[in-house]
Amino acid sequence: MDSSQVPSKSCSICNEPTSLKCKSCSSSAYCSPKCQKEDWSLHKLLCSRLAAFSTPPGTNFRRAIYLPIHEKAPKFVWVPVEKSRLWDGEIQDDDDADFTEWLGERRFGFRMMKRNQVRNRELENEIQLTFKVTAYGSLGIPPLEVNECTGHVAKGKNISLWRGPILAMKMVGKDSELYGHIDMEDLRDLADFFTVTNAVMEM
């Protein structure tokens, strides 16, 4: 949890200009040791893993945060992306991501994080949550299992139960269809999101 000097930007906890950054990951920044200490129980879940995910395996991969169903700690993963295509094969400017390795073949639901309501700040780069949806209760399809990881990162303050595995990916800017690399500072916004946002009802 050591810190070093860093150019000013918003503190992950209180939004004040920062004077410290985490020495281990050089990603999250804070205004004081007090705020860094407050963030540490969440931050430590991924801090030591960022270095291993600093270089993508190829230009068409983006770093994401994966929240498994039965594990307490989230994980960094590389998600393959490519430019989307029209039915006739024409390449578009927006990105398509392949979620199947983590979410399987079922249909996907999406939620966009545009603002951290807990910290009262707009997100410079929106975060997209992708998850499974299923028509359980019909055709003999069982409900998806409760995602235990969301409750752990939210310290048990999640206001509803999210089900199934979840992927969090950073968009480049606002109202964007381009994916960027998610960072440690995004983990705080993700954890806060679960404390104020109801899970999407499965369909």
UniProtKB/TrEMBL annotation:
Keyword Zinc among record annotations: yes
Coiled-coil region(s): none
Source superkingdom: Eukaryota
Domain named MYND-type: residues: 11-47
Keywords in alphabetical order: Metal-binding, Zinc, Zinc-finger
Stored Pfam families: zf-MYND
GO molecular function, one term: zinc ion binding
InterPro entries on file: Znf_MYND
Protein name: MYND-type domain-containing protein
